[in-house]
Amino acid sequence: MRIKSFIALLFALFAISAGNAQAKKYNIHTVAFYNFENLFDTINGPNNDEEWLPDGAQNWTSKKYKQKLHNLARVLSEIGTSENPNNSPTLIGGCEIENRGVLEDLVKEPLLINKDYGIVHFDSPDKRGIDVALLYQKKHFKPTSFKNIPLLIYRNQEGKADKKDKEETTDDKNEATPDNRVYTRDQLLVTGFLDGEEVNIIVNHWPSRSGGEKKSAPFREAAGRLNRQIMDSIYKINPNAKIITMGDLNDGTYNKSVKEGIGAKRKKEEVKQFDIYNPFEEMFYKGHSTLFYRDAGDIFDQIMVSEALIRTDYSSFRYWKAGIYNKPYMITTTGQYKGYPLRHGMNEIGFSDHFPVYIYLIKEMK
Q1: Widest Cα–Cα separation across the chain
Q2: Whole-prediction pTM value?
C-alpha cells in the first residue's frame, strides 16, 4: 500500500507541476519593419517630389494618397496578431517616408488611431527626401533619447562595374554632389524603455543597388560598418544592452555588408557577447522572401537582435520568433508579376513592393 501511495503522490506532484507549466503566461510585444514604398503626400515640398504630385508622372491625387494610407494601416494593424491578437506592433520601423506629416496622417487612420502611436523622425539628406522613422505605442514604450547618424559615403568609394551586373530598376538613385558625397538616409538610433526595460533600436534604409549590385556594394558595406559602430558604442556603456537593428538593407542576409559589416550570425549557438543574431538568414535559406526582382526572391528587410535578447531566462524581454507578413490580399495574383508584393501603380493602389517583417519579444509574467 505504501508503494501505491508513493506512486499516487508522484503522479499528483507531476500533475501539479505540469499544470503550473501550462499556466505560465507571457507579456508579448511585436516589433515590425515595413518599407512603405513612396509614402508621399500631394503637396509640393522642398525635396524632389515632383513625380508624386497631382500633375506629376504618377498622377498622385488625394484619393490615391488616402487609399495608400488606408492600405498601410490595414497591414500594420494586423502584423503579429496571430500570436498577439489584442495588439498591433508596439514598435514599427519604416522607410521611404517623405516627411513627418505623412506619418501623422498614417497614425490617425481609423485602424491605428486607438493605438496612440508616437513618432520619431528626422529629415534625411537623401536627394528624394525619403526618410526612416520609428512609430511606437506610447503606453508601452518611452523614448529617452534619439538621434540621426549620417552615413558618409563618396563616389570614389564605388566598386568596379561587372559586365554581367545589369543596373537594377530602383526608385532610389545614388547620386553624388560636386563634393562627390552620395547623400543617402541617416541611421536612426532610438533608446527608450519598453514596459520598464531599456531597449535600443536602430532603423535603417541602406543605399540602393543603383548602378548595379557589385558597383554599389561598397556603399552598403560602409552602412554595415556604421551600424556595427553604433552597436559597439552602446556596448561600451552597457555590455548587456538589448539592441534591435532593422531595416531595408538593399542586401541579402548573406552579403558582406551584413555578414562582415554587422557580423550577423545565422544560428543562435554561434552568438557570443556583443554579437548579433539574424533570424532571417535561416528563413532565406528555407526559401522565404520579402521582395522579388527578375523572378528571384530575396530578403532585404531584416530584424536582428543582440545576444542579451536571445538568452533563455524569460524573466526579462527576450526574442521569441520572427516572421514575414505576406497575406494573400498583399500579393499580386495575375500577370507578369504574379506572386510579387502588390505595389501601387497608375491604375491600382496597392501596398508596397516589399513584405513587412516582424519579431516577437516575450517576458514571463509573474
Answers
A1: 94
A2: 0.91
Q: How many CB atoms lie within 10 A of CB 293?
A: 15
The three grid cell numbers given for residue 78, joined into one nine-digit string: 494586423
Which pairs with CB-CB distance under 8 Å and at least 24 residues apart come from 163-167? 165/212, 165/213, 165/214, 165/215, 166/212, 167/210, 167/211, 167/212
Which positions ≥6 away from 100 have C-beta within 8 Å? Answer: 119, 121, 133
CA distances from 175 to 64, 152, 178, 217 (A): 29, 13, 10, 15
With 0-12 / 13-18 / 19 or more C-beta atoms within 10 angstroms meaning exposed / middle / buried, residue 221 is buried
Q: How far apart are the first and last CA of the chain?
A: 39
Question: How far is 318 from 277, CA to CA, in rounded Å?
Answer: 12
Q: What is the pLDDT along the chain (366 residues), one digit of tens a residue?
A: 455 555 554 455 454 444 444 568 999 999 999 999 999 999 998 888 888 989 888 899 999 999 999 999 999 999 999 999 989 999 999 999 999 999 999 999 999 999 999 999 999 999 889 999 999 999 999 999 999 999 999 988 877 766 555 555 555 666 656 678 999 999 999 999 999 999 999 999 999 999 899 999 999 999 999 999 999 999 999 999 999 999 999 999 999 999 999 999 999 999 999 999 999 999 999 999 999 988 899 999 999 999 999 999 999 999 999 999 999 999 999 999 999 999 977 677 899 999 999 999 999 998
Q: 5 in the Ramachandran plot: left (φ > 0), alpha (ψ -120 to 50) or beta?
A: alpha
Q: Which residues pair with 39 in a beta bridge?
A: 97
